[in-house]
């Protein structure tokens, strides 16, 4: 037993690429008053292998009910994916109650456009950019995916390689708030206002088209019922539109928060799913 334990640790470190050196470039300003007058200055971090060359890129937005969170809390995700040869960009964005969902979406779009313009200098492939997020961040990623036309095109005309939504909230925020805006949903009105037209404008299911880039949806089998119900309505719309390249994977025993904290363990199924999706697209 005493010999097996060190061997196990060594095998784990090798399998997770733990010895690979990384460049972590922090606090890069991607929004300033000169570029977006209606948005606050916001920064992002880039995680990349030191010898990165033409690698796929994941732009990640964190969750926090659209009112909390910061990029520094997710360095584990950047580190671990970068050690698996994926360049990771983690961006801060405006939060409620100081800002509303329109500013959050503009900020998220600016982060992806900054990545398209600059990631080549960090060893990333601007034609292989994926958007991702957990919870409220998954909602922002979904908006970028369904409104891909708002993004700048790369030189070859490609915009997104795909999207990865991790226990995403708000795929049908309109339907959710119609039922709950005077009850449990009232707390989200700081971000989404009390205007049903705004709820619909920022519900990604209403903007689905046949041109949707490949999408991977990861959901906990024990997540919040509102997330499950919203995803089911989203997928019904996917079927009605005849969109084929959307994959849903349910993690039977996972609750909402463990859907993101599972990325702490590099040997977990989630890495196989995410890296497999990136490799295929």
UniProtKB/TrEMBL annotation:
GO terms for molecular function: hydrolase activity. It comes from the Bacteria. Residues 1-20 form the signal peptide. Keywords: Hydrolase, Signal. Residues 44-221 form the BD-FAE-like domain. InterPro entries: AB_hydrolase_fold, BD-FAE-like_dom, GDXG_lipolytic_enzyme. This is Acetyl esterase/lipase. The lineage of its organism: Bacteria, Pseudomonadati, Bacteroidota, Cytophagia, Cytophagales.
């Amino acid at each position: 037993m005493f010999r097996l334990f060190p061997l196990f640790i060594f095998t784990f470190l090798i399998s997770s690429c733990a010895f690979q050196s990384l460049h972590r470039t922090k606090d890069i300003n991607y929004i300033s008053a000169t570029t977006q007058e209606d948005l606050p200055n916001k920064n992002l971090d880039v995680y990349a292998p030191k010898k990165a060359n033409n690698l796929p890129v994941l732009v990640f937005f964190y969750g926090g009910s659209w009112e909390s969170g910061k990029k520094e809390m997710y360095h584990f995700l950047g580190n671990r994916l970068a050690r698996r040869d994926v360049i990771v960009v983690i961006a801060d964005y405006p939060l409620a109650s100081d800002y509303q969902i329109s500013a959050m979406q503009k900020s998220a779009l600016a982060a992806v456009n900054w990545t398209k313009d600059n990631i080549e200098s960090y060893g990333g492939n601007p034609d292989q950019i994926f958007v991702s997020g957990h919870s409220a961040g998954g909602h922002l990623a979904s908006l970028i995916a369904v409104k891909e036309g708002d993004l700048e095109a790369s030189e070859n005309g490609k915009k997104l390689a795909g999207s990865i939504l991790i226990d995403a909230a708000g795929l049908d925020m309109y339907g959710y708030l119609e039922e709950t805006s005077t009850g449990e949903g009232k707390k989200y009105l700081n971000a989404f206002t009390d205007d049903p037209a705004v709820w619909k404008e920022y519900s990604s299911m209403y903007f689905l088209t046949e041109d949707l880039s490949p999408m991977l949806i990861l959901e906990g089998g024990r997540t919040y019922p509102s997330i499950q119900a919203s995803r089911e309505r989203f997928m019904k719309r996917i079927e009605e539109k005849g969109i084929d390249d959307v994959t849903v994977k349910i993690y039977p025993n996972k609750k909402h928060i463990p859907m993101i904290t599972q990325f702490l363990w590099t040997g977990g199924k989630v890495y196989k799913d995410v890296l497999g999706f990136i490799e295929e697209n």
